[in-house]
Each structure stands twice: as structure tokens, then as C-alpha cells.
Amino acid sequence: MEQLRAFIDTCPLLDHHCHCLMELEPPVTVTSLSDALLGTLTEAHGKAREHAVHSIAVKRSIRELAAALSADAMSLEAVAAARLRLGDAAANQKLFGAARISALLIDDGLRGGVANSADWNWGAGSGGGEGEGGRGEGGAGEGGGSMDEQQQGGTSSGGGTKNRRGGRKTGEGDEKQERGDEQQGGEQGEGGRWRWRGVAWHEGLAPVVRRVLRLETLAEDILVGPAPGGTWTLGSFSKRFHDAIDPPPPGVVAFKTIAAYRCGLSIDPLVTPAEVELGIQAALASVARTSPPSLRLSDPRVISFCIASALAVAAKHQMPLQIHCGFGDRDLDLAAANPLCLRPLLEFNEGLVEEEQRGEAQLGQADREVCSPGSYAAPIVLLHSCYPFTREASYLASVYSTVHLDCGLVFSKLSLLGTKAALVDLLDLAPLNKVMMSTDAVGFAEPYYLSAMWGRRILFLALSSIVQGGDLTLPEALHVACGLLHNNALRLYRLNMPSVRHPSGPITT
Fold this sequence. Notes:
By secondary structure, the protein is of the alpha/beta class. Helix content is 39%, strand content 10%. It has 16 helices and 13 strands. It has an 8-stranded parallel β-sheet.
């Protein structure tokens, strides 16, 4: 098995799902930095974070980071002090160099959708978390987690009632800062104040850097902005939304939805124009209640419409749609994040819904071109190992040709045994050429390093067990490792970079 171990340890990782790094507001102290780092290692916030250092994954992470940064002791404060002595640039280069990442596909939606902007705003919050991985309530991070769900601190468009997709109940004037997406100043939070780096800033950290466009952030930016004719309608919104994604902006290689956080995964691809119009008006009413205007879009009608529209564009350009599935921080309704809820969307995407059921007949001819999904069969990537729904995810990848799996986020969040079990579950039914590894890191280089390092170790443990059990030969396991770490994502995202070869030859497809 040493050949397998050596190959996995040296094979570059194509990180197909990650997030921006952040900069802490000076002066950066050991306390503020250690708090921010903790935010990238856990999904917990508030009082729950006080217990996070007692979890298996955080204990292991602190030990590994102390060794990597030559800290004086095995504590988070010692790790922060060692990072301060090294300096931000040197620490980033050291950790990214050890992570051996060949490409970063960055979801920058945590920053309010302003890609590559130098005009950042300082935001209060923890130093990490998707808000996915230390995500949430003023957190930063899919850092290990994605901070996915921290959104601008705007009002929810949920209208004060529990949405029909099973999402969290939100009321009028709900000002909760769900995910730290481009938070505007404010009080000091866990980890102090920070601002996001632009996508282009990361180009020195990996040979290839590309962008993933978050659909909800785009829709929010449109609805908060000036409307033609004074107010947004279905026709004007859908045209503006479509024009923003087709053709995809330069550097964008995938779309992403965080519907799991906003309304749950029971997306309705057959939502009618009348329903979408009502959803848009509800969202606009939410915008009108805020000053300055802001929005946290959670209306399932509008989100369903945006996803169905993006599927058509994704199919046209054969680019993936990434979907957050499974665990996150506490504002996520985990039951509604089960990927099995996606069945209507998956059936719709693969053309398994009769044309007359699609609702296109309800569109006026003038609206048909901008509102109708049109074509389907877009590649779909279910993110975050869908944990704890790993078996469900593996099943979906086995029966739907367009479904691919990401085995990210768990590497820095679970115990060694738990992560190995999750990975084996994903590999049980899924075609092995449809599974890809990512870090889902956010905020700092540390979660990138930890996820890449532990991802490789656990991949070796899983594959060596499978080989020893007789399910795969050693050459087959080498093919699988090569695909999971690099070549499967290279092919799916159609990146112009060389594939990786292993001792048994090029990966088979």
C-alpha cells in the first residue's frame, strides 16, 4: 500500500469548492486571531463555541497547526502567536505550499457578490464559518465551512411565515446577520472585524484560480438595485438575471445555490410565473423596510425560479450547478437539507418531466424566452459530502446521470473514524468517476491546509481498506485516487490545465 500512500500524498488537489480568505482589521492580536481561527474550525457560535475546543476535530486541528507553524505550545493561542511571528504572507505560502493545491474554484458570494472588488467593507463577526464552517451569525466561513449562509444582515423576504419548502421561519424585519456576507461594519463580534479578499488576490496561492457564482447573491443584488420603470417585475427581473449569467461572466466556471439555508431543498422547478411574481413583490416589500436597502432572499418561489433558469444556462454551457446539501451551522434546517428533497429538480433537469407539466404554457409569448428554462441536463454537484446523508447522496449519483458528489467539509469537521465512514458511504454506490474532493475552506490558509492534509490521509485509509477487502485492485485504487483528487473535477469543470498521471497510467473515463 505504500505506492498508494505515496501517490495520494503527492497528487495535487483540484479544490473545486472553497471560499475567499479574509483580512483582520489592525491591530491584530493573539486573542483576535485565535478567535477568528476557531471560527474556521467549527460550526458553533455563541455559547456553543465555548465547547468547540473539546471536540475531536478541533483538538486534532490545533495539534496539527501547532506542528505546521512551529508553535511554542499546542494551543490555539500559541498557533495564533506563531502565525503573527511568521506574518500573513509567509504563513499563507507555507500552508498552501504544503496543501499542494493545483486550482481554487472560489465561491465569493459571502462578499455580497462584488467580485474582485478592492472597496471592501469591514464587517463584525467571527473569523470564519460559511458561514459553512464557522458559518453563521456574523461569522465568516464554508471554512472547512463555507460561510455560505451569512448574508448581508438584510431583511428576510420570507414574509413572516414558514416557507413551504421547510425552511426556517423568518419574520418581517428579521435583521439577523445569517452569514457575514459583506457585513457592513457594526459591533465587534467573535473574532473582531474583517474584510474579504477579492478572487483575483488568490492568484498567488494556486496555479489556477476561477470563480463560482452564487445565485442568491446575484438575485439579491438585482432586487436591491434600481429597476427599469421604477419597480421590478417578473419580466424585468428574469431578463436582468438571465443577462447576468448568460454568457457566464469571465472566470466563472460554475453556479451555486444555498437554497438549503434559505428555503430548503424542496425546489419547485415547475413554479408558475404568477407565483414568482408574488415572490418578487414580497422580496421588494422586504427591501423597502430596510435602510440602507438590503435583502436576505428566502422566498422559495423566487429561489426556485432562479435555480431553474440557471439550470438552462448551465446545460447550454455544460457548466456545473453546485448545491449546498447536508450540515451547516444552527440556522440551517437539516431535515430540509437532505439531498433526497431534490428529486423533483433532478427529474426536471434530466428531462423526465412531461413538457406540458413544465408550466411553460402559462407564460405569455413575450416572457417565454426570458422565463422558460428551455434546455436541461446540466451537471449538478451535491456539496459537503451531504453529511449526514452520505448514503442518500451516493444513491442519487448512481441513478441520475447528471449528479456528481463532493466529498468536502467533513475532513476538518469530523473525527478520523467518522470521516472515513462518510467517505466510504459516498463511494458505496456512486460511480467513482463522479466523486471529487474539496476543502470548502474559508477565511485563512489554515483550513485549506487541514482539509487537504486530512483529505489525503483519509482517502488513503478508505481506499486501502477497500483494496484489502477485495473490492478494488491496487491499480484501480490509484485510478480512483487520481480522479477524486484532481482529474474528475478537471473534466467536469472543463479547466484548461493538464491532467494528472499515476504509476498505472492515465485515469480511465
